[in-house]
Structures are given as structure tokens and as C-alpha cells.
Write a structure and sequence with these properties.
The protein is mostly helical. Helix content is about 60%, strand content about 0%. It has one domain.
């Protein structure tokens, strides 16, 4: 199985299960800096520590940018990777009213199953 992992993404994309990834940079109003402890964790594990992910998930301008892209999308299905489970729940709670309104206008299935 591990040998197949290298080509799995491409195979799933070609078969229509995964879409091309689209990334768009945006500028935060205030710079995001890691604390000394977070930087040490990142240097050691090459991964952001939970404290940094939690702080990132609370940045209003970042969350508004994420929500704006989703709300403006014409896609019927979007896979969003949030910072944490709590972040995913908060973004979903903010999305459901706007997506439900869009769905009722455009005839998409109910967004309550997000």
C-alpha cells in the first residue's frame, strides 16, 4: 500500500474523486507570529502546535476570507480542511445560513447536511 500512496492523489483526481487544488493567498490585517515555544515546536516537529492553530482559527479577517471564497463559489461540494475540529464546527455554523439561502435560490440540496 505505501508504494501506491505516491500516485493515489493523481489517480483519484483523474477519476473525478478529487479536484485540482486551488490556493489563493491573502494578507492578514495583523501579522501572525509564533511564540518562542511555538517556533521551537515547529522547528522540532515541522508542524504547527495546537496553540498556534487555535490562535489562527480565531483570526476574524482570515475566517471572513475563507467564508467569502466558499460563499462566492458556484461549486456544489467543497472539501474544507479547517485548523481544528472546533474551527470546522465554527466555520460550518457560520456557513449554513448563507448556504441554505443560496441553495433555496439555486435549487441545490439542503445545506444542513454539511
Amino acid at each position: 500500500m505505501p508504494r501506491e500512496q505516491a500516485t493515489l492523489y493523481e489517480k483519484l483526481r483523474q477519476e473525478g474523486f478529487l479536484a485540482e487544488v486551488t490556493m489563493e493567498p491573502f494578507t492578514l490585517t495583523d501579522p501572525f507570529e509564533l511564540t518562542a515555544e511555538e517556533l521551537e515546536h515547529f522547528t522540532t516537529f515541522e508542524d504547527l502546535p495546537p496553540t498556534a492553530l487555535d490562535r489562527l482559527s480565531k483570526l476574524d479577517d482570515r475566517n471572513e476570507a475563507i467564508l467569502g471564497v466558499i460563499e462566492a463559489s458556484s461549486e456544489r461540494s467543497i472539501l474544507l480542511f479547517a485548523n481544528t475540529v472546533t474551527h470546522a464546527v465554527e466555520l460550518t455554523a457560520r456557513l449554513i445560513p448563507s448556504l441554505s439561502e443560496r441553495d433555496s435560490r439555486e435549487g441545490f440540496p439542503d445545506a444542513g447536511g454539511i
